[in-house]
Amino acid sequence: MEGQRQTTFRFDGWTVNRDSGDLARGEHATRLQIQPLQIFVELLENPGEVVTRERLIAKLWPTGIVEFDASLNTAVRKLRIALNDDPEKPRYIETIPRRGYRFIGKIEREEAPPSAPTALGLIPPAALIPATTPTPPPAFAPTPAPLATALRHRRWPVAAAIALVLMILIGAVTYWFSPRNDVPPVLAILPFIDIGPEQKDAALCLTIAEELGIRLAQLPRVRMVATTSTSSFAGKPGDVREIGRSLGATHVVEGTVRRNGEDVRVSVRLISVADGIPVFQQPYEFTQSTLRDIHETLSQSVAQELKLLLSPQQLKRWQARMTRDPEAYDYYIRARDYSRRKTTDGDDQAAELYRLAIERDPEFALAYVGLAEIKLGSLSMREARLADIAGEVKALLAKAEKLNPDDAELHSLKGWLATEEERYSEAESYLRRSLQLNPSDATTYRRLGHLFESLGRPREALEQHTRAAELDPRDFVNPMYRCMVLQDLGQFAEAARACTRARDLDSTNYWPSMVTSWLEVSRGDLFEALRWSEAASKLDPNEGRIVFHSIDLMLSLRLVSEARATARTMVTPDEARVRLYQASIELAEHGPAGLRTYLRESGTAALTESGIANQAVRLYQIAGELDNARAALESMRSTAAFADRELFDPSQIRAAHAPSLVFAGLLLAQGERAEGLELLDKLDQMLDRAEKNGVVHFGLDSLRAESLALRGKPDDAMRSLRRAVTRGWREAWRAETGPYLASLRERDDFKALIREVEARNDEMRARFHQLKRPT
């Protein structure tokens, strides 16, 4: 009945008004959009009960039309964001897989009417703290006594308080590490520890450490240990001196956060690793409130009181980083927390939170930067197409640059985007500029390393990845990338040490084992490569890339039945790639005739997706289906897959496979010699540059052998192929079935070389069978 209709719901300190959509808890207030509100009311009216998706869709979209931007998933995600509810560990809204949602909180039912709606969401204005200029102390003290007393007894807004702590620490570091000291300091900022009774400020603790690190890194003569490394010590007890030494630091910053209702205490210590003595320590009392103008005012006034040696430009950059809106800052903290998870779901939540931060404060530069990074990350996380995201990323970065043109993270992302778009000269300029602004950013050094890899300059790439590893010594990706580049340079012993380091740093991630498998392929030991591939698969059984790699290795060792059995275990949505590997197995077991039968039965559409179309061209040509091969080739001409970067990527040397060679082979077979030779010329130029820059991988020699054979230069081709075998090439079965070395197959020296390779493969195959033999 309408007279019994409940207008206001209360739970766990929250109040939600179904008519206005106001959602409030303490001084936190927001207004729900209509669809999240409707969902929430439906759940609140049926606490503990499953409300089906069909029921919610019927209520929200009675016409049956559901647009993507207004989808149920999006509406529920916005509701969770407003409640700060983690979908993986829900406190209020629980997902019931394939059914719907359930409210699991405890509703407080009261007959008394709630406070007037106008009281919801009101935040008291902040009083600006005037800057003062006390008499400078004769020598530096952590905090001048009058100021320390005031700070201990004054309750500050949280965001302004964070700025205050940052500025005081920066003051301490600026004085303590002034040019009078001979040794440049190396600082490690440990994640602040949440010691509050509710344990709900972990994200805030990490953000304080990250922001402090970014700011301190900009000071002259100060080097920072990356937060990826320091975060590995989060929540772990230990001697600060030992932690600092393990990170290569001279000083460590640590701190705690304790929330009690609306009061927050932050305690900070700057400690010398040499003797464990605090250089600076201070507790501060804060309250949850608004940033508004107080953040900028406090930053400048504290800097003035502590006589910090900061340039106006540096102060301006720091001020431009932060928002004055407390809700925008809260959204930002939570977005950073989700983005650290490195999952697609986490990225979705982070993107939504960044958008909400921008909605609350359109001048919040860091929110634009964060959202742009999520979008660029989708290139690998979701295999997104660059053309689909580049426009949005550029718009986000342009807005951020207008707001804060000298932000290091902004220039780093511009460099990443320019690398993806093959604007290599611009990319290097952006990345170098980023490192000028923040010389301790391991991520930017890593991006610069990737740039040099794209340019086929492995020595310079190694230098950048090594620098990243020095700055971020406990992040496994840095030694992993070093392992990959060292393979290209033929420095296998050093590569093995780098891969071991990566595995030691993270024994739960499959990538270090996968890269170790690539290393063994580069050394010519396919048995060890297969063993490491299986180790990677145990860490992530559902990762299709690992299974595909294992099948490749098995086919190289002519373990056809094992490859077929492995293919049956694949659990992947990539149906096209599954068909590709099934076709390869048919080729290995039944030859070109069996491959032709399989391709005709599976249909021509099965292998035409852009990601594998170049492999389809190769298989169709082997099967004698030249019309289908040409159709696959033509389907790619207008796509990004036919751009120079995709056709002549130096990383193809490591895989010993080049799409340009595949396409050239087909064009030459169909009499289009000029275009085919043009592709081979460009491929040879890429191989020559790589060799000049230090690459000694067998892939360089095997690709050159195939190019020379297609050109009709068999003697030169054999010399390159012999060098490939010496360096670790073991692809005998592909040499015998593919079209690229066909002109060599009747030569006695070719047959002898293949027998030599097969003898080595026989030995590795025997080791495999011995390993698998029941004991």
Verbal overview:
This protein is of the alpha/beta class and 775 residues long. Among the domains are: 2-119, Orthogonal Bundle (Arc Repressor Mutant, subunit A), CATH 1.10.10; 145-322, ABC-type transport auxiliary lipoprotein component (Rossmann fold, 3-Layer(aba) Sandwich); 323-386 and 393-400, Serine Threonine Protein Phosphatase 5, Tetratricopeptide repeat; 663-775. Helices cover 58% and strands 9% of the residues. The protein has 35 helices and 15 strands. The strands form three sheets. Strands 9, 10, 11, 12, 13, 14 and 15 form a seven-stranded mixed β-sheet that branches. Helix 21 packs antiparallel against helix 22 (526-539). The longest helix is centred in the C-terminal third of the chain and has 28 residues, at 575-602. The radius of gyration is 30 Å and the shape is globular. Residues 65-70, 111-156 and 290-308 have low confidence and may be disordered.
Briefly say what this structure is.
The protein is α/β, with parallel strands linked by helices.
Count of distinct strands: 15
Strand residue percentage: 5-15%
Tell me which CATH architecture of the domain at 145-322 applies here: 3-Layer(aba) Sandwich
What is the CATH class name of the domain at 145-322? Answer: Alpha Beta
| Integer average pLDDT | 82
Largest sheet at a glance? 7 strands, mixed
**How does the overall form come out from the CA principal axes?**
globular
Rounded to the nearest angstrom, the radius of gyration is: 30 Å
Q: Superfamily at the CATH H level of the domain at 145-322? A: ABC-type transport auxiliary lipoprotein component
Structural class: alpha/beta
Low-confidence stretches: 65-70, 111-156, 290-308
